[in-house]
Amino acid sequence: MSNNKREDKQKRQSSPIWSKLLPSIIQVRVPVPFSLKWINSYILLEQQGTFTVIDPGLRTPEAEAVWANVMSELKLEWSSCTAIVVTHQHPDHYGLSGYVQQLSGAPVYMTRDAKAYTEKLWGAGSEQFERDMKQLLHTHGTPDDITEAILLNLREFQARVEPQPDVTYVEAGEALLAGDRHWQLIHTEGHAYGGIMLYDANEKLLLCGDQVLPRITPHVGVVAGEDRPVLQQFLNHLQQIAELEVSLVLPGHREPFTRYRERIESILQHHERRLAELYSYIAENGAVDAFVCCEWMFGSHLRDQPHNMRFALTEVIAHLQYLQQQGKLLEQPDAAGKLIYSVR
Ligand SMILES: [Zn+2]
């Protein structure tokens, strides 16, 4: 082992809840009460003793306790937090931002589109969103009891994003100075509206939110009340961002990784495979709705897991709509208004 490597190893420190990835970047594993287990938040340390937090997590007592321990173990004070950046508005990333803002007084940076979306989910638009979600699930063949369980699960997130922050808008295309680095803000598509990634071109670091994840594929699902070709947008976007030179990816879930382009390639292949499987299933089984396809693909055990069921179902609908937009499937309402897919 060279001297440099030995020094590096000595400098690298970690605990079960945080790891020092680079001298000035700390990964914090903030627990979430669902299958993903934790979300990665990142602390970007600054030379003058201040720091920036990326995606503080979902508001739960466990997450608050983890943050209290991290602050104490790293000997940091919230008063030294100068900025909170939220890559996208999903509650596991955004939920604690208002709480951290209360503790620190720091600005919360996110895009106008992402913030507007929080209004839709947990603000003035939430009743309409619930009606749209109910309609979406019904139209795609979801049994009523499962629809109700999904709506109840969605409502439970309200308390996990409180208090909601005062937001300072940033937009893709802008530059942001944080952690003594100049980050380019790059827009994302397909996983969440109005999302951004932070790219440091000097060190080729990418804080990518959930856009490229190791081992698990980022969720790409249709959104109730919206009519956007999310899967097409996601796949196009992945192809665009594959051009970036990236030596270390700091993702929103699981562990940081290096093989950026290989990972993008395997996510693209995953969707190609899924699309082909879904098409063959419908070709062999005739006209079906999305709920039937979802149970075939993921199994009926999701009936007891409304959170995972919502993810699975909205993703299957995104795949079906993609095949329909490609001219491979027909999408037709039956007499009851339920959407039925068949091969062209
Ligand atoms: Zn997300």
Automatic annotation (TrEMBL):
Catalyzed reactions: 3',5'-cyclic UMP + H2O = UMP + H(+); 3',5'-cyclic CMP + H2O = CMP + H(+)
Metallo-beta-lactamase domain ranges (all copies): 39-253
InterPro entries assigned: B_lactamase-like_C, Metallo-B-lactamas, RibonucZ/Hydroxyglut_hydro, Sec-metab_biosynth-thioest, WH-like_DNA-bd_sf
Pfam families, per database record: B_lactamase-like_C, Lactamase_B
Domain of life: Bacteria
Biological role: Counteracts the endogenous Pycsar antiviral defense system. Phosphodiesterase that enables metal-dependent hydrolysis of host cyclic nucleotide Pycsar defense signals such as cCMP and cUMP.
The protein, known as: MBL fold metallo-hydrolase
